[in-house]
Amino acid sequence: MKKHLILVVNPRSSGFKLVEKKILSFLNNKCFNDDQLSVFEIQPTTPMENTQEMAKILHSGDIILVAGGDGTAHIASNAVAISGQKNIKMKFTGFGNFNDYAHSFSKNSGKAMLRAIESGKMKTEIHPLEIKINGKFFRYAPLYATIGLTAEMAEIFEGKKLRRVLKKIHRRNLRLILSLFAATRFYFKHRKKHLMKIESISLDDKEYSLPKKIVTDLVFMNGPRMARIMRSSANKIDNKNFGFSALNSANLIKNVPFLLSGIIGKIPLTRTKKVGIEFKKPRKITIQIEGEAIKVEKVSKIEVKICDNIKIAIL
């Protein structure tokens, strides 16, 4: 193998022991030369700092193998997007609490992974979402982002106590059940504390009429995995637009029809290339991007658009 492979891992993640067993040992047995394989370890700083450090080591033509959850995949994808390097290809294997990247694009076996890397054949490409806050670049989101109640629910998975518990559990299904239980407890405790006062929303520079007076969540969905979750067939064939909705998640009973539509039909997302949101006055928000939750102070304006000029190639 003449290609240069960069393995991206987070040694502090709850699934790292599985990564050591199923990925690191597998690659070591394949006897890569020193100039063919390098490892980038996620550091205990911020996701953006890790993104910037990883972007510095990338070269055109590299192949990136992400062995971790969506947080690790998000850092690696952003590093590719901001690096400016050409012909980089990515492969995802899922070893996190949530693995939307891996489930969207990859088979998780070592043999399938190696075949994809050796062939170098591109399976698909992502046009990520570019997120700006108060007019300044914030982050790329290849798959999805949410703002509000559901975003703050994601923040609980960064808590040290929960992460310690999950790290001791090696069965993925059990980790998922415990994660969902923790999220459910948070929802019932905080669901009425996250009401947004929105001045206006525009889609493709046209005014968007809010379907509900009370909004707790803003949702931005991109990519094939999100199509399956949201039951939106348009996402499977249309990568030049993304799905948007403003939701009221606080009232469980009123949301039953909405939830049922996701099970038996389609959740109503509006297709668009660009969304602009202005709040009535600057406020603190929690924004969650593919599993990473961040609090941002004094937010008055948010812009989200699909990036036609950036492509992330997937093996």
UniProtKB/TrEMBL annotation:
<dbReference type="Pfam" id="PF00781">
    <property type="entry name" value="DAGK_cat"/>
</dbReference>
<feature type="domain" description="DAGKc">
    <location>
        <begin position="4"/>
        <end position="119"/>
    </location>
</feature>
<dbReference type="InterPro" id="IPR017438">
    <property type="entry name" value="ATP-NAD_kinase_N"/>
</dbReference>
<dbReference type="InterPro" id="IPR016064">
    <property type="entry name" value="NAD/diacylglycerol_kinase_sf"/>
</dbReference>
<protein>
    <recommendedName>
        <fullName>DAGKc domain-containing protein</fullName>
    </recommendedName>
</protein>
<dbReference type="InterPro" id="IPR001206">
    <property type="entry name" value="Diacylglycerol_kinase_cat_dom"/>
</dbReference>
